[in-house]
Amino acid sequence: MNNDSLLYKIADTQEEFHQIHQMNYQTFVDEIPQHGANEEEMLIDRFHDENTYIIAKRGRTLVGMIAVRGKRPFSLDQKLHNVESFLPEGSVPCEIRLLSVKKEFRSSIIFFKLVEKAVTHCLDNGYNLALISGTVRQLKLYKRIGFEPFGPLVGESDARFQPMFLTRKRFESSSKAFNRLMMGRSRKREPVNFLPGPVPLHKSVVEAFSQSAVSHRSSEFLNQINEVKSRLLEMTGARHVQIIVGTGTLSNDLTAAQLRKAAGKGLILANGEFGYRLIDHANRMGLTFDVIAKNWDKEISIREVDEYLTIHEEITWVWTVHCETSTGYLFNLKSLGMVCKKHKVNLCVDACSSAGLESLDLQEVYLATTVSGKALGSYPGLAIVFHRESVEPDMSLPRYLDLGMYEQSKSVPYTHSSNLVSALLAALRKIDPTKNITLNKEVKKVLTREGIDFLGNDDYSSGIITLPLDEYISSRELGDNLKKREILISYESKYLLERNWVQLALMGEYELKEVMKAMDMIIEEYTNLRVKVEAVQ
Question: What is the pTM of this model?
Answer without folding.
Answer: 0.68
